[in-house]
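Worked example 2:
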Amino acid sequence: MDFNIENEALYKYILDSIPYPIVFVDANHIIRFLNMQAEHWYYDQRGYDNLIGKSLFDCHNETSRERICSAVDKLRNHANEMYLGVTPQNYRFYLNPVRNSEGELVGYFERFEQNMKK
């Protein structure tokens, strides 16, 4: 086993092993990372291209934008994971805060989980 993997590569391997889409967005709503499942979700299934460095709102409608902004305001005020509902594709949708060592919000990630109930 190769334990000389650089941290960045190791983190990508870990996030790519998660079986649902994860999209990391900085505090200004700029997409900074998509795991392999998120790339499939946004690029292959939804037809987007090259989202890294673009606004999260380039791939969300106005209703979603308002819901996300409201949730992020709560995250800025130290809320934890926010459940935002179920997508039309039947995934539960969450926002999770990412904080620095001082507890300040540096970004958040979208997390989707398959909703087994139909």
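The two ends are 42 Å apart (CA to CA). The mean pLDDT is 89.
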